[in-house]
């Protein structure tokens, strides 16, 4: 089993390596791949030093699996080249997510749809992953009619430069700015680019990807995506209207039974999900569960997850594990 991590020097690439280590994923050969400026750099993994190689060399090696975390442009150019060489690509960018010819996978929800001829597999947007993981069992039981979601997203979702901007502002230092405004002690209702309909690309990702993962275009979704000066994970206030009525007892039971979901909901003791506590954890945490008293069949939820883990690296590694366990790569 030859495994490549493309974009190994970035925030998500580094997290992929951490998850591979923690989950004891078995492989015979590991190749760390990055852009030309990083070729030759050394990265330590499990006590062994690996030299970073370039994309051209990596394609020639023809790894069995390549986990891409190198941006949409790189994925569009290089994922097909890896696929032609026989590699199964698991891509963290948005490049292939809405392609009708490629599957958008959260293993706990739709992993069983994967086949051995799926050579490019899309990893969903971080905000979408945590929301659909919590909603999937409820959709199966009660049928989702409409979702209204507001996100509270960590600066880590933008990358290291965004973290540096926030920390520089906090320390009163000048430095590179990746946001159009100050982020420290501020809130930006602006993630990714604005589209012609007035929504941002991030908001429309949540709309479109949710329908694709749940395999149900009848589900209505509207989103407002907001960047906050926090670390550790993304938070979401989700209001979901169902076709069927429900009891909170049923909701708790279904969420408790869903792999990868953990309920933290004890308001009497101030227990609810927070990014500070989700940091470096793989679970999606759900709390503040309560009926919407303004209309029937509607639930309010608070959902938190580490966007670099289940929102990116962990989900990608879980897809790789699923492929290996089901002998879909060879």
Topology:
Blueprint: E1 2-6, H1 11-22, E2 29-33, E3 42-45, E4 48-51, H2 55-61, E5 65-68, H3 72-84, E6 88-91, H4 107-110, E7 120-122, H5 126-142, E8 144-153, H6 160-171, H7 201-214, E9 220-227, E10 234-242, H8 248-257, E11 261-263, H9 275-278, E12 284-291, E13 298-305, H10 309-325
Parallel strand pairs: 1-2, 1-5, 5-6, 6-7, 8-9, 11-12
Antiparallel strand pairs: 3-4, 8-10, 10-13, 12-13
General description of the model:
It is built from ten helices and 13 strands. With 330 residues, it is of the alpha/beta class. The chain has two domains: 136 residues, Rossmann fold; 181 residues, Dihydrodipicolinate Reductase, domain 2, CATH 3.30.360. It has a six-stranded mixed β-sheet with strand order 9-8-10-13-12-11. A five-stranded parallel β-sheet has the order 2-1-5-6-7, sandwiched between helices. The chain has a two-stranded antiparallel ribbon with strand order 3-4. Helix 3 links the parallel strand 5 and strand 6. The longest helix has 17 residues.
């Amino acid at each position: 089993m030859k495994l490549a991590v493309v974009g190994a020097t970035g925030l998500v690439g580094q997290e992929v390596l951490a998850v591979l280590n923690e989950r004891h994923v078995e492989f015979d050969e590991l190749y760390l791949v990055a852009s030309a400026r990083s070729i030759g750099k050394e990265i330590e993994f499990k006590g062994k030093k690996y030299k970073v190689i370039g994309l051209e060399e990596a394609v020639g090696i023809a790894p069995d699996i390549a986990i891409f975390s190198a941006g949409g442009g790189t994925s569009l150019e290089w994922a097909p080249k890896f696929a032609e060489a026989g590699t199964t690509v698991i891509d963290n960018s948005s490049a292939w997510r809405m392609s009708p010819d490629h599957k958008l996978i959260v293993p706990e929800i739709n992993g069983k749809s994967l086949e051995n001829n799926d050579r490019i597999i899309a990893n969903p947007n971080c905000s979408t992953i945590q929301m659909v993981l919590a909603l999937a069992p409820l959709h199966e039981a009660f049928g989702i009619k409409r979702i209204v979601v507001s996100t509270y997203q960590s600066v880590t979702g933008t990358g290291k430069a965004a973290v540096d901007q926030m920390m520089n502002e906090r320390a009163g230092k000048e430095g590179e700015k990746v946001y159009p405004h100050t982020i420290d002690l501020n809130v930006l209702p602006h993630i990714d680019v604005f589209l012609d309909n007035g929504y941002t690309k991030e908001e429309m990702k949540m709309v479109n990807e949710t329908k694709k993962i749940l395999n149900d275009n009848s589900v209505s979704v509207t989103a407002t995506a907001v960047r906050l000066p926090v670390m550790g994970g993304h938070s979401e206030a989700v209001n979901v209207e169902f076709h069927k009525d429900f009891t909170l007892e049923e909701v708790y039971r279904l969420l408790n039974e869903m792999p990868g979901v953990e309920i933290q909901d004890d308001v009497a003791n101030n227990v609810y999900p927070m990014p500070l506590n989700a940091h470096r954890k793989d679970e999606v945490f759900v709390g503040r569960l309560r009926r919407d008293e303004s209309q029937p069949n509607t639930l309010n939820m608070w959902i938190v997850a580490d966007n670099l883990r289940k929102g990116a690296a962990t989900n990608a590694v879980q897809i790789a594990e699923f492929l290996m366990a089901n002998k879909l790569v060879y």
